[in-house]
Amino acid sequence: MELYVVRHGQTDFNAQGLACGGQSNVPLNDKGRQQARELGVLLSDVHLDAVLVSPLQRAQQTAAIALEGRNVPVMTEVALREHCFGIYEGAVLDHPQFSKLRWDFCYRLPEGESLADVVCRVYPFLADLPKRFGGKSVLLVCHGALARVIDSFYTSPTNEQFRGFSLANCQLLHYSVPE
User: Fold this and answer.
1) Residues 116 and 123: beta-carbon distance below 8 Å
2) Rounded to whole angstroms, how far apart are CA atoms 121 and 2?
3) Whose C-alpha in 80, 103, 140, 167 is 20 to 30 A from the C-alpha of 54?
4) CA 22, CA 48: separation in Å to the nearest integer?
5) What is 67-117 written as a DSSP string?
6) pTM
7) Is 82 labeled as catalytic in the residue annotation?
């Protein structure tokens, strides 16, 4: 199975350095829409059998723009929702308390999720993909923290590599997934 993973286009939250998690249902900004169009050009030569998209508006918009004119089945996938940052949604990313707590694997952010919660949601979804789409080519349209967890499933990074992983808006990753 060929798996492609992309982070949504830019939002105003991203541009302002604010935490844009699973409760922040914000739209793409002009730059994000342009990034999604450029992604569409990049994907134009990639055969896709299915596209699975986070339910959040920014991911839905990215998929719609990038896939405009293509006849590819697009399905909303709740497992691809961004890490919920709870009370830190909309906070500056370098907020001292948020900066510390978001990396504590087992600490559940107030009114949000822990990294362990996200892993427990995403890893079973990924493990099931080859059963659902064996021999196919699939695109996941998701979010930055989700892409980090997805990458960790396929690459087994160290803690430092996990923390250092970053995916730019509309950056595309590719994994050849054994079946």
Assistant:
1) no
2) 21
3) 103
4) 26
5) TTT----EEE-GGGSPPP-GGGTTSBTT-HHHHHHTT-TTPPPTTS--HHH
6) 0.96
7) yes
Whether 5 contacts 147, CB under 8 Å: yes
Using 50, 70 and 90 to split pLDDT, how confident is the model at 170?
A: very high
What three-state secondary structure class fits 59? helix
**Cα–Cα nearest to 32, from 74, 68, 69, 61:** 61
Phi-psi region of 46 (alpha: psi -120 to 50; beta: other; left: phi over 0): beta
pLDDT at 179: 80
Annotation marks residue 83 as catalytic: no
Inter-residue long-range contacts of 37-40, CB under 8 Å, 24+ positions, other chains counted: 37/65, 37/66, 38/170, 39/6, 39/9, 39/65, 39/66, 39/170, 39/172, 40/65, 40/66, 40/67, 40/68
Of 2, 68, 82, 95, catalytic = 82
pLDDT digits (tens, 9 = 90+) for 76-93: 999 999 999 999 999 999
Spatial contact of 40 and 65, defined as CB atoms under 8 Å apart: yes
Give the span between the Cα atoms of 142 and 52, in whole angstroms.
9
Considering the candidates 2, 8, 47, 95, report the single residue annotated as catalytic.
8
